[in-house]
Structures are given as C-alpha cells and as structure tokens.
Amino acid sequence: MKNKDQARDSSNNTQSTNDHIESLEGKEALEKLKHIAKSAENCFFCTNIKTGLPLSVRPMSVLEVDDEGNLWFMSMKESHKNHEIESDPFTHLFFQENKNSGFLNIYGITEVVRDRKKIEELWNPLLKVWFQDGKDDENISLLKVVPTNVYYWDTRHGEAVAFIKMAASVITGKTMDDSVEGKLEF
C-alpha cells in the first residue's frame, strides 16, 4: 500500500520513486513490530506528550509484544511515569535495533495494569535489579501500550547487504539504497 503522503513523510529524498515505501498490515505488520521491538531490547519511553511542556523520557525494556501488537513494560506502582500516564495516557516510543536499521516510531495509549498473573507471566529474574522482592513485589505494575500509529524504517535484505550497497554507491556515485519504510497497521 503506497501513497503520496507516505512519500512526503519519507526521510529518504535520494530516491526518485516510492519503491522504498512498504506499509504492512495484519500478521506482516505484527511480525515486523515484534522483530524490531525485541531486537532493540530498549526504547525511549516518552510521557507528557500532549501538554506542550517538555517530554518526560526514560529508557525502558519491552518485555513482550502480544498478538494484538500491544507492548508490555514493568514499572514501579508509585513511579513518576505511572502518575504521568494516569493523568495523560498518550505516550510515544522510539526503538532503534542497530546503528543503520530497525527503527520504530510508536504513538500509543498506555494503561497502568495491576494483574498478578500477567506479572508472573512476564517476570524475568534480571528484573530483580529494580524489584527487590522479586515477582511478588507489591510495588510492581505493568504498562500496556496500545499502539495507535506505528511507522518503521528498515533494510530490505539485512544490514550486510545494505552496507555493501552503501559502499557500492560511494564508489559508483549511483544510489543503491536498500531501505524500506512504512506504516504498520494491525
């Protein structure tokens, strides 16, 4: 699904055609979201995005991208971010898988969830760094981000092929871009 608005939104002005625009839907979109979010491991999780004041930004690790495309994080129940979300649920997430590919820009609505069963399901022993009493810590809450708008930038054939094409472009002076970008719709 290619359109003029997506081409205008593109950061890649070196290509004369829109062959790098590839929006994905359904299962393909979900798989792209899961792949980049899990490979990136961390994101910048932004709150207070509607107020006109400076954003609140912090790095966070996604624990799961579920089959509906929701992203799950763990947070302290009385944290500043939880209070911000409860007063303004609009959030913005930025993921970067690696230096040259695998970028996600996600707007969403976030809900603070207190579900002991889900906490147990998502628990990882490394989380004890932040939650000293383990998975039974009463201060644990979950953040469920329901994406409302998702855009990605990636390479078609992986980072190695993209690097070879970039090197060939420098040598030949001819554009050989391997990038792909578009909306993800579930």
Descriptive report:
Helix content is 27%, strand content 34%. It is an alpha+beta fold and 186 residues long. Strands 1, 2, 3, 4, 5, 6, 7, 8 and 9 form a 9-stranded mixed beta sheet that branches. A hairpin with an 8-residue loop joins strand 2 and strand 3 (56-61). The protein is globular, with a radius of gyration of 19 Å. The two termini are 14 Å apart.
Topology at a glance:
Blueprint: H1 4-9, E1 24-25, H2 26-40, E2 42-47, E3 56-61, E4 64-65, E5 71-76, H3 80-87, E6 90-96, E7 103-113, H4 116-122, E8 140-155, H5 159-172, E9 179-185
Parallel strand pairs: 1-9
Antiparallel strand pairs: 2-3, 2-6, 4-5, 5-8, 6-7, 7-8, 8-9
Mean pLDDT: 84
Strand proportion, as a percent range, falls in: 25-35%
Name the structural class.
alpha+beta
Low-confidence stretches: 1-16, 160-169
Number of helices: 5
How many β-strand stretches? 9
Order of helices and strands: HEHEEEEHEEHEHE
CA(first)-CA(last) distance: 14 Å
Helix share of residues?
25-40%
Q: Assign an overall shape.
A: globular
**In angstroms, what is the radius of gyration?**
19 Å
Question: How would you briefly describe this protein structure?
Answer:
The chain has helices at residues 4-9, 26-40, 80-87, 116-122, 159-172, and strands at residues 24-25, 42-47, 56-61, 64-65, 71-76, 90-96, 103-113, 140-155, 179-185. With 186 residues, it is of the alpha+beta class.
Identify the notable features of this structure and list them briefly.
single chain, 186 residues, alpha+beta, nine-stranded mixed sheet, 5 helices, 9 strands, 27% helix, disordered N terminus
